[in-house]
Amino acid sequence: MHFRLRALYTLGGYAAAVCLCVICAMIAFQVIGRLLDKLLTAVGTGSLNLTIPGLAEISGFLLVGASFLGLAYTFVHGGHIRVTLVTGQLPPKVRVFVELWCLSIALGLCGYLAWYTGVLMLDSIEFNEVSYGMVPVPLWIPQSVMLLGILLLTLALTEAWLTTAVIAATKPGEFHIDDASPDE
């Protein structure tokens, strides 16, 4: 299936990868700092206290970013779990409409999730909500990244739905399972 906004979804995938790399770097820095402190204490000098305050909380927020920003990229590349055991056995004229029905449900659920994530983010902005950890992070920041990832997935699902709807309307008998799989 051809996605016109593939570059945008790829950008979301790269942003997810950056989140994971930042998590890795922060944890590596924390481990190296602790080892260096142990070594300096063993030698008899004072420790440097190389710690990152709120590391677990910030890593959790970055993990949310990585998870949600990578959704559209994963969908476009066929990485999401798809149950084609039954649909693969259906005739093409039926399969295209089953695929359209499944995409419609996914699109509805993503739209619903995007709407209420947006409402949650606006509430967090209105009430100046911050996290409860050592570092008070405004909650609208990770919520906005989460919303962006959901919107990217909704956009990718919309593209897939439109392509499948065109196939269903014009040539349903020529629908192949390759047409339904997001990967080109």
Briefly summarize what is shown.
This protein is an all-alpha fold.
Percentage of residues in DSSP E strands = under 5%
Element order: H for helix, E for strand: HHHHHH
The major beta sheet can be summarized as: none
- The stretches of 5 or more residues where confidence is low (pLDDT under 50) are none
Number of H/I helices: 6
Based on CA inertia axes, which overall geometry fits?
A: elongated
Helix content: over 70%
Give average pLDDT, whole number: 91
Task: Please give the number of β-strands.
Answer: 0
> What is the alpha-carbon Rg in Å?
22 Å
Regarding quaternary structure, how should these chains be classified?
A: single chain
Helix/strand class: mainly alpha
- Distance separating the two termini: 5 Å
Architecture blueprint of SSEs:
Elements: H1 6-43, H2 55-69, H3 71-76, H4 92-126, H5 140-170, H6 177-180
Helix pairs in contact: 1-2, 1-5, 2-5, 4-5
Q: Tags for this entry?
A:
6 helices; 184 residues; mainly alpha; elongated; single chain
3D structure, described in words:
This protein has 184 residues and is mostly helical. It is built from six helices and no strands. The protein has helices at 6-43, 55-69, 71-76, 92-126, 140-170, 177-180. The longest helix is centred in the N-terminal third of the chain and has 38 residues, at 6-43. The radius of gyration is 22 Å and the shape is elongated.
